[in-house]
Design a protein that fits this description.
Length: 380
């Protein structure tokens, strides 16, 4: 769609192995599972819209190989030539093989089919154990709890979302979930037995089914088989270009090299859209947009949680509490906002996000005074 918006007039073919038209994934663990929305309402590009924009859409079509020398893609529907190829192959949910020892249904959430399977299990009074206390696991836990299920969340680390969230946000998440009846087990060492599991030696849990939310692996095998470099994803530069000048990789499958060494792979809605826009601009021959600060959101128990920018422990951290379950955390360096998070506070977050982009200097003392409006925190 970005290519067409940039007035690219060439042929566009989208090939995907899922049977569905392309859809937004954030609602898979939330409104799609609960039944508040249908797959049609989150579909991005159906046949009618594709035809209107001159896009050929091949769903349920697996790509079998790429011939880089001939610049062709081989599929079960035949071969397709390309001038530029964009790999947006995403990733797949990691599986916890040991969980099979319980003999219980073990579900993951990554596709529309996964969401449909989970929805079949959402009956009030049933019991689910969610393995993984990251964003996805917590969203699933909230959806199940709101559907009337008993919910246990098991997290191996000492706090929730420890890989990406600062401690204060982890604590806010813990409070939100426990207040809504979710049982949390952090530092969880799990032993799987027929019919259930034992946590940290003596806590027995006998759920009706399990959901594992322990991360994803990038679908980079197709790129690797074509001889492209991979490292837990398809290696790209800061403009999502692979080592082949005719091939780009975007979204969850793309692993960007960083100046200090190593790679980073961002699994977010924002990155998927930004990388797609950058790729479209490169193909259309226009200057790509500059990258925004990384931004992420999650909806749980009717509250929106948001994070943006750098959230480092070495920062000066100021918390602003505006209600029993509404708060914000500001990360400052020399009085300038470098990152922030919020539970609720949607309007204030939007304001503070603009400060982040503008490198605005603020007063920490006025910022933490919830009796003052947020704009009063601007430094004199």
């Amino acid at each position: 769609m970005a290519l067409r918006e940039k007035e690219f007039a060439g042929r566009i073919i989208i090939i995907g192995d899922e049977p569905h038209a392309p859809y937004e994934r954030p609602e898979l663990s939330k409104k799609l599972v609960s039944g508040e929305c249908s797959l049609e309402t989150v579909t991005i590009l159906d046949d009618i819209r594709a035809e209107k924009h001159g896009i050929r859409l091949l769903t349920g079509c697996a790509v079998q190989g790429i011939d880089r020398a001939a610049r062709t893609v081989r599929t079960q529907a035949g071969e397709f030539a390309y001038d530029r190829l964009v790999l947006a192959t995403g990733g797949r949910a990691r599986h916890l093989e040991q969980a099979a020892a319980t003999g219980l249904p073990v579900l993951t959430i990554r596709t529309a089919a996964d969401a449909a399977r989970l929805r079949q299990h959402l009956e009030p009074g049933r019991h689910v154990a969610v393995i993984g206390g990251g964003w996805l696991g917590l969203e699933v836990a909230a959806s199940c709890r709101q559907a009337g299920l008993q919910v246990d969340v098991l997290e191996a680390s000492a706090r929730l979302c420890s890989r990406v969230a600062p401690p204060a946000l982890s604590q806010a998440l813990e409070t939100l979930h426990t207040q809504n009846g979710v049982r949390l087990h952090c530092n969880a060492a799990i032993a799987f037995h027929p019919g259930g599991l034992v946590v940290t030696g003596n806590t027995e849990i006998r759920p009706d089914f399990l959901v594992t939310a322990i991360g994803m692996d990038a679908n980079d095998e197709l790129a690797a088989s074509a001889g492209l470099a991979t490292e837990r994803g398809i290696l790209v530069d800061n403009l999502f270009q692979t080592e082949d000048p005719h091939i780009l990789a975007i979204g969850d499958c793309a692993a960007q090299r960083v100046p200090e060494g190593g790679t980073v792979r961002l699994e977010s809605w924002q990155n998927a859209n930004h990388s797609a826009l950058v790729a479209a601009c490169r193909i259309a021959g226009i200057t790509p947009p500059t990258a925004e600060a990384p931004w992420f959101w999650s909806d749980q128990f009717g509250k929106r949680l948001q994070m943006v920018g750098d959230l480092l422990a070495a920062d000066d951290i100021v918390e602003r509490v505006t209600g029993p379950d509404e708060r914000m955390g500001f990360h400052l360096r020399d009085g300038i906002v470098t990152g922030l998070w919020a539970l609720g506070c949607v309007r204030d977050f939007a304001q503070a996000r603009r400060w982040l982009a503008q490198q605005t200097r603020i007063s920490a003392a006025r910022l933490c005074d919830a009796g003052l409006p947020l704009k009063a925190a601007l430094a004199a």
